[in-house]
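Deliverable D5.2: sample structural annotation.
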Amino acid sequence: MINAPPALTPRQRAWRRFKRNRAAVISGLFLALVVLVVLVGPAICPYSPNALSEAQFQPPNLRHWFGTDVHGRDLLVRVLMGARLSLLVGATGAGVSLVIGVIWGAVAGYLGGRWDSAMMRAVDVLYSLPSVVFVIVLITTLEQLFKNWLSRLVSIESDSTVRLLFLFVGLGAVSWLTMARIVRGQVLSLRTRGFVEASRALGANEVRILWRHILPNMYGIIIVYLVLTVPAVILSESFLSYLGLGIQPPQASLGSLIADGAGQINPIRIYWWLIVMPGGILVAMLLALNFLGDGLRDALDPLAES
């Protein structure tokens, strides 16, 4: 008699589906490599990201792999620092989306009725505003109101650091809206299921039901949209930095590096590496994050075949 193989758990089936998606696996490995390089690379690079020199506008060569900029700074170490800052902004926006979006959507969907209507109307109002314009207005307003107070409170002397804090707040204010809608819709469909009614009949309070029984059944879709939020936030930050409203010198993000490179374009000569190098890294990161999100979505779909 041949014993049947043990049944796979949902996580094992999800992992098997994920491994079949080569694009998602390669994207995950690429992102892990990028994170490792941007964390370790600047420390071992022989050049400082802000060190000026007379080697202006050198194309990529053996000494400067990504070339140099208008101030003679090594572009490779600046791209690594910019990618680190862009990833930090993306992770922060995704974290805000996770905390605020899940709590707001779960409470609205579970309470229902007037609470649901009022909370989701607030989301609709924020959704109706152009996100980039709203972030610009919010950052500008916060900077005018709280810049001096914040500088004294936390002893911050750099304007770029203050702007970075306000950028986190501004991008976080719009990054959670989609997550709230998705979570609210899932909670509406789960709150009437049999296991929820059984928990309520056994005397579980509402907070325990929501935290221990409803939200764990949504971790798949939450993880997927959490990953997909990162490239959206990075792209928004890059656009704001390109406009000069995001990261301020001497700090640099991929968007601000692209803006600096675009500013050096002239009819006589185009210093292509100033745009291609940071732009290529930005495109590769965004594509990898989207491929990873699509792979997680397919792997964590409970209706997908094993």
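Annotation notes: The chain has a mean pLDDT of 84. The domain at 33-44+66-299 is CATH 1.10.3720.10 (MetI-like fold).
The annotation will be released with the project's public dataset once the embargo ends.
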